[in-house]
Amino acid sequence: MENNFDTIVAIATPIAKGVIGIIRISGEKSFEIASRIFSGKIRPKMINYGKIKDFDLNILDEVIVLPFKAPHSYTGEDVIEIQTHGSIVIINSILELILKLGARPASKGEFTKRAYLNHRIDMTQAEAVLDIINSTSSKSAQNALNNLSGTLKNKINQIKDSLSDLYSKLIASIDFPDEVQEMDNNTVVSICNDNIKEIDNILTSTKNHNFIKDGITLALIGKPNAGKSSLFNALLNYERAIVTDIEGTTRDTIKETINIDGYLLNFVDTAGIRDTKDVNIVEKIGIENSYNAISESQIVLFLFENTPDDIDESLIDFAKDKKVLFVKTKADLASNCDLCNDEYISTSAKTGLGLDKLKQKLLEIIKETIGQETNYTTNMRHQSCLMRAKECLENTLKSADFINSADLFA
Fold first, then answer.
1. Side-chain half-sphere of 97: how many Cα atoms within 13 Å?
2. What is the pLDDT of residue 73?
3. Average pLDDT of the residues of the chain
4. Most buried residue, 52, 98, 112, 245, by most Cβ within 10 Å?
5. SS (H, E, C) the chain
6. What is the pLDDT of residue 185?
7. Does the global pTM surpass 0.70?
8. Taking a C-beta distance cutoff of 8 angstroms, is the pair 36, 44 a contact?
9. pLDDT band at residue 244 under the 50/70/90 scheme
10. Mean pLDDT across the stretch 254-282?
11. Rg of the chain over CA atoms, in angstroms?
12. Tens of pLDDT along 51-86?
């Protein structure tokens, strides 16, 4: 079934000064509208150079026009892409001409919506477009690109085809019992189990994808003046947190993100933890927030100035379910002997000593936390559909213990 839509237009580049600005038109009148304002002939499958003129034949800009004839375009419709110089004035002037010639402004996501409705992409690929735009690291961008390329779509279709084939054979054995032999329970169970394993394989990527997309949270924990804010600033490579010799300078949690080898790390600088009997109400709240930061993190960095014994045992016990790394700070003030220890990593925010080693260790922990990466990126909708499908297959397996009927299996 074909969908007939009106002609839409939108600016495809950010509304800001740039070298190039792009305007896209999609719909039945795309070629007609473009030919009314373009000085040259628009030839499909070719790069067309010419000028855009207004209704008074004034030249607005020299442009390149890229035409795409349906169905060989992103939306599956006739599409015209006009590449102009990146002047906001010029782009808006050309857009205004196109609107006066009968196109309407595209709504948010409408080009991708048309691609879906015209069967150019499926829903997983449509969602992947937004994931690519919103990706915050090379890893999340690559995962989204895999979905746009059809990785998840192809795997889902494999499962779908397998179950459709099973269903067809069951129905055939019911409708044509003399020609088609009824399938035995073991065959049905085997096919269902195989597909449950395939679904589980996709679902195992859920946590991994969330970590890659949103990042892993790391809490910097320690006593007052343990060097948390200094290390925080050194890792970010700019002065984000205030650093003084006064205990309790950091009163609230401060969060910032850095990218290490394609992975997002959300660092949380926290208030120094000490006995709350001798602190004011503001610092007490900051300490409570520090405990909350431990609870919400995946990795806890315990910072100390002298020895790991500086860290309270109850605090370590509080983080027993987290990945833990001990970090010695202010190593530029220590002797060489103090730097040689396998129990912790020595660092200096002042000289940069040990920062590369710390990042490398964090990368190892992150890969261990995420586990084996998969090619499948799933969102909540995908996960809900997959879990419902798995539940149906599991119900079929349960019924296999007490039924042996093709129609009930179907």
1. 25
2. 95
3. 83
4. 98
5. CCCCCCCEEEECCCCCCEEEEEEEEECCCHHHHHHHHECCCCCCCCCEEEEEECCCCCEEEEEEEEEECCCCCCCCCCEEEEEEEECHHHHHHHHHHHHHCCCEECCCCHHHHHHHHCCCCCHHHHHHHHHHHHCCCHHHHHHHHHHHCCHHHHHHHHHHHHHHHHHHHHHHHHHCCCCCCCCCHHHHHHHHHHHHHHHHHHHCHHHHHHHHHHCEEEEEEECCCCCHHHHHHHHHCCCCCCCCCCCCCCCCCEEEEEEECCEEEEEEECCCCCCHHHCCHHHHHHHHHHHHHHHHCCEEEEEECCCHHHCCHHHHHHCCCCEEEEEECCHHHCCHHHHCCCCCEECCCCCCCCHHHHHHHHHHHHHHHHCCCCCCCCCHHHHHHHHHHHHHHHHHHHHCCCCCCHHHHC
6. 81
7. no
8. no
9. very low
10. 74
11. 30
12. 999 999 999 999 999 999 999 999 999 999 999 999
pLDDT at 333 over 80: no
**Nearest Cα to 98, choosing from 52, 159, 157, 152?**
52
CB-based contact 13:20 (threshold 8 Å): yes
Between 398 and 24, residue with greater pLDDT: 24
Of 34-38, 148-152, 192-196, which gets the smallest average pLDDT?
148-152
Residue 143, token pair as written in the block: 């995962």
Residue 100, number of CB atoms within 10 A of its CB: 13
Give the chain's length: 410
- Tracing tokens 């933890």 back to the chain, one arrives at 273
Give residue 213's pLDDT band: very low, low, confident or very high (50, 70, 90). Answer: confident
In this predicted model, which residue has the larger pLDDT, 177 or 195? 195
Percent pLDDT > 70 in the chain is: 86
Bridge partners, 61 (sequence order)? 52
**Encoding tokens for residue 260?**
């290490």
**Residue 216: CB atoms within 10 Å:** 22
Estimate the crossing angle of helix 205-214 against helix 185-203, to 10 degrees.
20
CA distances from 179 to 31, 172, 186, 188, 291 (A): 56, 9, 21, 19, 70
Find the mean pLDDT for residues 113-131.
89
Contacts of 4 (CB under 8 A, 6+ apart): 28
Tokens representing 63 are 């442009």
